[in-house]
Design a protein that fits this description.
Immunoglobulin-like, about 450 residues, 2 helices, 5-stranded antiparallel beta sheet
């Protein structure tokens, strides 16, 4: 019997983990940890508010150890997030837990944080003072170590945060002196300084951020001897939205129009924008450099100054543009401060346009020159008629020629729809009897009757 009992005791001793001295408590802050001192003070905590501290317990030994004790005892203190006990921790394995303190009663508080082979004294103080809360519209949250963020605010505008002072003690308290420091931070309206608040009574006031410059800003809200951090950022005022106003008497080729950029409201700041012409030809592959602004090119700049209601093109409120000599869609886009406005003008196919015509007599010939444009690039049949000084048609009358191939070859290697037509006619007899001519040109839309040109 004695031998059996001895073996049982030895077996029990062999399986009991040596936990004492194998655990160490640490204070955790972000990714950092430091050994916990025998006494840790949570500091002053406003009545009714809570403070939480994260701790870590680690098995610092070389063998597994059983963690069967982890508790906090003391009024206002609770432990959360800890492991289910008992828990076996491998060498160097750790677990985190949180101790929370909250009390509405003023005074000094303490608790014992106990674990295997160690004990730490936790202390906290609830001063006799008002609780500061930040209103979020539908609820409130404690003001504390976290900075009160006002976000982004334009110069000249204001962002307001509402602060509530609540008496959560059992004695009447006077609202202390209130102030805001830092560029752009002020107390807005009246403040409750000096007001006596009975238990559970509250009073509120507003803190305003109105930046005078762009960039980050910081300040402090002072409530008696307490200080809360404030932050915000000033931004330049937004530019107003651009609105295109296009004046074009006729949506045809060879026209001049003007573009004006109206602003959705008077500008609060200065800036610059662009107006761009983009052309989508009706004939695939066609290009037309004649579609451009009077300032040159298909993009022009305008400026905006504070107070302006229109963009300025140099010293003018508008800029002229040419519709060119090709059918298609002309897309005009104004851009200012990341916002755009756009208009599309459809330049319809039209009959051949004649800009100038002349003729000259040579040795037994007459040369006819016709300058014009065909925005369809489909000119074909040309009909010439010559007249004498009395206005009579000279035989053989209308001379019709199919120039479709010549025009097609020309337009294939040219930009736009402009052309210069040269035709030479041999003359038998007295060329001086021929004093005028007409040139009629046809394309897919019809025939253009040429004016009688005297030479």
């Amino acid at each position: 019997m004695k031998g059996g009992i001895g073996r049982a005791l030895l077996l029990a001793i062999a399986v009991m983990p040596a936990a004492w001295g194998q655990f160490q408590l640490y204070l955790v802050s972000g990714s950092l940890e430091q050994p916990l001192a025998p006494v840790y003070d949570l500091g002053p905590i406003e009545p009714g508010l809570s403070a939480s501290v994260q701790f870590r317990i680690r098995n610092i030994g070389n063998t597994p150890a059983v963690l069967d004790l982890l508790s906090v005892g003391g009024s206002g203190f609770t432990l959360t997030g800890g492991p289910a006990l008992p828990a076996t921790l491998a060498p160097q394995q750790s677990v985190n837990f949180i101790v929370v303190f909250q009390s509405a009663g003023t005074g000094s508080y303490s608790a014992s944080l106990d674990s295997v082979g160690m004990s730490v004294l936790l202390t906290a103080t609830v001063p006799v003072e008002l609780t500061c809360l930040l209103s979020t519209g539908t609820a409130t949250q404690p003001l504390g170590a976290a900075t009160v963020d006002f976000g982004m605010a334009q110069q000249g505008s204001a962002v307001t945060r509402h602060v509530v002072l609540l008496n959560q003690t059992n004695v009447p308290l006077v609202v202390p002196a209130l102030a805001a420091t830092g560029a752009g931070f002020t107390l807005s309206g009246s403040t409750p300084t000096g007001i006596l608040l009975q238990p559970v009574q509250s009073a509120g006031f507003d803190v305003q951020f109105s930046p005078a410059t762009a960039g980050p800003a910081s300040g402090s809200l002072l409530v008696g001897s307490r200080s809360y951090l404030l932050s915000g950022a000033g931004t330049l005022p937004s530019l107003p939205a651009p609105g295109l106003s296009v004046s074009l008497p006729q949506a045809l080729s060879a026209q001049q129009g003007t573009v004006t950029v109206n602003l959705s409201q008077a500008a609060a700041t200065s800036g610059s924008g662009t107006v761009t012409l983009a052309f989508q030809p009706a004939v695939a592959g066609a290009t037309d450099p004649a579609i451009q602004f009077a300032t040159g090119g298909q993009t022009t700049n305008f400026t905006v100054s504070a107070g302006d209601t229109q963009g300025q093109f140099g010293t003018q409120a508008s800029v002229a543009f040419q519709t060119g000599s090709t059918a298609g869609s002309l897309v005009i886009t104004a851009q200012l401060g990341g916002r755009t406005d756009q208009q599309t003008i459809v330049i319809l196919p039209a009959a051949v346009g004649v800009a100038a015509a002349q003729a000259a007599r040579g040795a037994g010939t007459i040369e006819v020159d016709v300058a014009g444009f065909d925005n369809t690039r489909t000119a074909g049949t040309v009909t010439f008629t010559f007249f004498d000084s009395n206005g009579n048609t000279i035989a053989p009358g209308a001379i019709r020629t199919d120039s479709a191939a010549a025009f097609a070859g020309y337009f294939q290697n040219s930009t736009g729809g402009t052309f210069l037509l040269k035709a030479v006619f041999p003359i038998t007899g007295d060329a001086t009897q021929i004093t005028a001519f007409e040139a009629d040109l046809s394309n897919v839309t019809g025939t253009t009757k040429g004016a009688k040109t005297i030479f």
